[in-house]
Fold these 3 entries.
Entry 1:
Amino acid sequence: MSKSSHFHPLEFNPTTGEPFLALPAPYENIIITPPRLSDAPAIILSMSDPAIYTFLEGPPFPYLPEHADQWLSRIKQETDAAIETLRRANEEKPDEPPIFLEQSPVRIIREVRDDGSDLFLGDIMFVRERYPDLDDKELKETVLQRNAARDLGDPEIVWCIGDFLASSHHGKGIMTAAIKTFIYEWAVPRMGVRQIRVETFSDNAGSRRVFEKLGFTYEKTVAIRKTLNSGRTIDGMDVLCWEAK
């Protein structure tokens, strides 16, 4: 598979043909790729790490092999479909501008080693906003339906980011660089993203710092008492917003 306009700015591994998004200096050894079924052991390790699961709402706890397999199977279907859409666009519309995609073909953060092998580090998910801070079910459903009904490329669509990074690589600026690269190199030009809204648990200062470094503006703290699957109870969510300039 060769690199061409509809895959831009993705590059391809010359050995495996796998697409990837490269981070700029000083993170040239970090790439964002599609998921692989072989990522399961690394995901289980991350989801069993209190430095990670303490700040995640969705994953089951304890996190079992079948949970990793199910998650990988689901997201791999999505990235495979995105890659196939781009491949067909290359064949059918080679002279047209790059198409917009709802799903990204890449999302898994990896560290490339000196010998060419790579290490699973984490995940970046881009989806239409789910408004987890809204308690009013009727209002939430109305807002969700309105956001979902907007056509891809509509600048009024509100998107959201979900992410995690192996604790062995916390504090190195990797997540900030990865999200920044993803936003400006893929989400904005290839998904039409113009508005992003994220929620972090109020006690997750590290995550909030990442988004503030990226230009997200603190909007509000929502008092919301919720017990996570891990058994931990949270008392609030910070909401931060970003708009393309």
Entry 2:
Amino acid sequence: MLLHAHFVFNGPQRPKLKCGKQVKSAPHFLTQCFQELISAFGFTWHEAPGEAEAELAKLNTFGIIDAVFSDDSDILMFGASCGIRRQNECYCDVMEIYTEDALEHGAHLTQGGLLLIALMSGGDYNVGF
């Protein structure tokens, strides 16, 4: 399987609050070092206007990238059609793949159903019920 990783960093329009708490608006102090390392290894990266997860989901929706690798399930709420995440912290080589088709036809979850689950369980932007 041919893989070309593309990295996306949070941008300046990232929300200032998550779950009612102030988040850092300045980039992480290692961001520039990571960007230089990514470029040195021949990979590409760019800065999103806001949330990196939202940008990646948009790229996935438009077919520019095949999948989004993230431990954050927000990518599904942002509309990604294929997400990859680690199964758990202990086994980094075991991955779970979520596709829009499998969620809709296998688990019978529509985008509206996913939204309801997100609202009920909470996440980065709300505490849930």
Entry 3:
Amino acid sequence: MDPTTNTWYMLKHLEDDLGHESVTALIPARLVQWASARKAEGAGPYTVNMELSCLGTTLRHAASFMNLQLPDVTGQARPLLLHLELIGGGTRRTRRPTEDELQAVLAYVEQRDPKVADAMRVGAITGLRRSELVQKLKWADIDDDKRAALIRQRKHPRRTLARDEWVPLLGAAWDIVQRQPKAGDRVFPVSPEKITDLFTAACKELGIPDLRLHDLRHLASSRLQELGFDDVERMAITGHRSVGMNARYTHPTPEHLHAKFDQATMKPAEATK
């Protein structure tokens, strides 16, 4: 399985948390303990719900393959987990870091690993996903003439339609990539876990609430919209497959909207002053 997919990460979490246990020990009460532990680690109800579904699918396939009769423990546990609010549906997220928050996080990470800080900077400009930044961004796929990177097998909601896509490394992102040492095949040879852990540690140390690494992707899409990029242009950069999904990642600030309104309603004489 491709180690850059969400399914791989969910299976890795499940293996670490439950892989040492007998299937017969997986009763609803044990899954409540597991879900509570995941919540304590910072996983939200939607994430835990996705992992629970992944566990259920794995158990069903294993039972079919091995000709076993296993109880539907995930189905049995689901009503209680919902009641305890340990699992739930996804909510639309609108959080994006302020410029002060972003610079504070980058300064914290820079002191600990400059390469990770640079990866975050590129992510904040281009909206590249974590796996794309640290696993799929490779020197062999950098085109100097286009100032772009070929991201292979870019994520798609329908996995069979994954495809290679050119992503422009806009502005400072190109310069940041070019200054990296070419010591291996990857531009940023760090683990996905490390970039997430450092971002999370920075937010905790700095007292920045409710901010996640993935919010840099929201920031990038929002900035592109504020700079005047249309839907199609933004989708070509972020990799979103629909205008609706692209809109979910775009959150213009009140300050930007005020400035745009003032500019649009300015009288010609005022505009020339």
